[in-house]
Structure formats: C-alpha cells, structure tokens
Amino acid sequence: MGLIGRRLLFLPDAPSALASPPGRRRLLWPPLLLFAMLALWLCMVYSCAAATTGSCAPAASSSAASSPHPKLLLLRTKNPPPPPLSPGDEEDEEGGEEEEGILDGAGPGPSSSALSSFLNGSGTKRLPQAVIIGVKKGGTRALLEFLRVHPDVRAVGAEPHFFDRNYERGLAWYRELMPRTLDGQITMEKTPSYFVTKEAPARISAMSKDTKLIVVVRDPVTRAISDYTQTLSKKPDIPTFESLTFKNRTTGLIDTSWSAIQIGIYAKHLENWLLYFPIGQILFVSGERLISDPAGELGRVQDFLGLKRIITDKHFYFNKTKGFPCLKKAEGSSKPHCLGKTKGRTHPSIDQKVVQRLREFYRPFNMKFYQMTGHDFGWD
C-alpha cells in the first residue's frame, strides 16, 4: 500500500487538517458544507412545525423568551372557545347587536387585548348566579352593558336563549358559553324572552334555586310601540300598529294574542315565576328610571347582587341625540360609547285614541303588578 493509501487508512488517528495534502482538503470541504446546510434546513423545518404561533423560530425556547406574555399563549391554547350558538340564536331581542362591538366603536383596544386574553383564559366557567330574564324592549341591553363596567361582573354579550330555545343541549353546553370568572366575580347572562316563556321558571329553578333574577319593566304601551318599531325596521310591509292591536276596531277588543301586547301583561307572567321563586329573589328595574337616573337604578342592582357600589354618576353622560344615557368609558375601551344605532329609533305616529284604549286595557294588570311587586312604577 502506498504512502497516500496508508495516510487515508489511518486518517482518524491523525490530525486531518495537518495530515491531508492541500488537494485532499479541498475535496473534503464541499460535502461538509452540504451536510451543515442540510442540518440547518432540517432544524428550521422542525422549529416551524413545532411553533404554536404559526411563525418560524430557531427554537421553541427562544420563541417563548421573545414573547412578552408566554403564559397568555399557553392559556389560549389550553382553553378553546365555547361552542357557537346555532344560526339565529345570536339575535338580540333588544335590537340585533351581538357580543363584539355592542357599543359603537367599542371592543378591546391594543392596550386591553392582553388583559382580555388573560381573563378569558383564567378562572373557571360557572353557571350564572344571576340572569336578566326580561322584558323585551324594556332596557335589558342597556342594563347589561352598564353592569359589565363593574369589575366583579362577567357576562355573556349575546343572548344564549338556553331556557327557551336550546334547553335540550344541556347544562354543560350552557356552561361553556359563560365567560371565565375568578373568586368573588358574578357570572351573568340576559335573555328577555325568558320572562314570557312558560317553561323557563322551572328550568332555571332546576339549575339553581338560588339564582337571582332581574326584570327590566317599562310602560307596557310604550314598550308595545317600541316592539312594533323594531319589527317594522326589519319588515316594512307589516300591517299598521292599529290593525294589529285590535281584534275588532269597532268594539275596541284588544288582540292579546299579538306578542307585542301579550308581553306587557306583566302580572300574568310574574304569577308563573312566583311558583318557583320568592318575590324577594326577583329585582324589578324601572326602564324609565334607567334612562332618567341610571346611577340610581344601578345602585339598586349592585345592592341586589351583593356588589360594592362602584358604578355611579361619574360613569354616565346623557346623549341628547339618542335620548338616553351613555357610558363615559365602556368595557374594553377608554372612550365614551353609546349603545348601537338600533337604539333610540323614532317611533311611528300612533293615533292617540288607540294609545288611550291600550292604557285602559293595561290599567288593571298594572295595578295588580304594583301590588305583587310592592312598587308603583307610575305608568298611569
């Protein structure tokens, strides 16, 4: 064997860079360089596949170190969003707004997005301890958004409609819709149609007999006209308010089968709730005073829920254009916001004789409602 052959055979035992002649060193560099490039490429492919953020990183540890909130990423990946409501379930009976953007231009800004992610990922999902059960067009959306300013209130924005439309999905499904809460916080939801749903009281009682109930009530005549106005905005070809109000205009017989009229017979619906809940477990909020004195009504609500009175006059300003109070600072925003464009619609002109006939119709029911609640709402 020649000298070169012997050198190659014992190459591992000798310093390669010194033992190999210049020509041989030049032949060894290309394969080594190719191997190094292949290894680097495989490392990058592995890092991209393993990254949870969808962006390539040299290594998972460096990606986590460069992130300002690595724990938030972990929380988001561990807690998937709740199951979506079926089509149509998101409809807000107060005007069609959904959870995000319920306030004009509102929504978490850059400064609050990290905090929002943290709150959504920590705590525990619980069944609601308080439910706003009614009434439609009474002011439930305003009340809910005002309450969400309180740091100890966590509420679903969209209406779950669990106890009237989705009850067969079960309590586990319902719980998944709820936001996560920390110790000392209250979970809430609002669905105004519960108040007029015959099965709702028994179903809520079966969930928890201790559930606190809130009903926002409003002059039933004004409420009916507001209800009609909302429907008219969606279906411009519906009959007139007057034709829907009466079974027979000549005799003045009111058509109580029309939902806009039927909802306002508060005493009748309340009787059904009192079969399952004591009157002291139900708070009745005045829709009129929620406009004229929002801080006062919110004070009563906070007391009822066992919360510290944090929401006060300083949180509100009166919007003359819309005709109702707005929040100076809404949840997730540092700017003043009012409820959406569907609020404060101009009511159509209704014949005063029709209005007067409706007041006569509702008067005995209102008197009974005052007696049942121990509160005169001053609708007459």
TrEMBL record:
Principal EC category: transferase
Q: Residue ranges of the Sulfotransferase domain?
A: 128-363
UniProt keywords, alphabetically: Disulfide bond, Glycoprotein, Golgi apparatus, Membrane, Signal-anchor, Transferase, Transmembrane, Transmembrane helix
The record ties this protein, via InterPro entries, to: NST/OST, P-loop_NTPase, Sulfotransferase_dom
Spell out the catalytic residues: K137
Localized where?
Endomembrane system; Golgi apparatus membrane
Which topology term describes how it sits in the membrane? Single-pass type II membrane protein
Q: Which residues bind 3'-phosphoadenylyl sulfate?
A: K137, G138, G139, T140, R141, R218, S226, K343, G344, R345, T346, H347
**Keyword DNA repair part of the UniProt annotation:** no
GO MF annotations in UniProt: [heparan sulfate]-glucosamine 3-sulfotransferase activity
Could you say which protein family the record assigns here? Belongs to the sulfotransferase 1 family.
| Annotated protein name in UniProt | Sulfotransferase
Q: Which gene encodes it?
A: LOC100555056
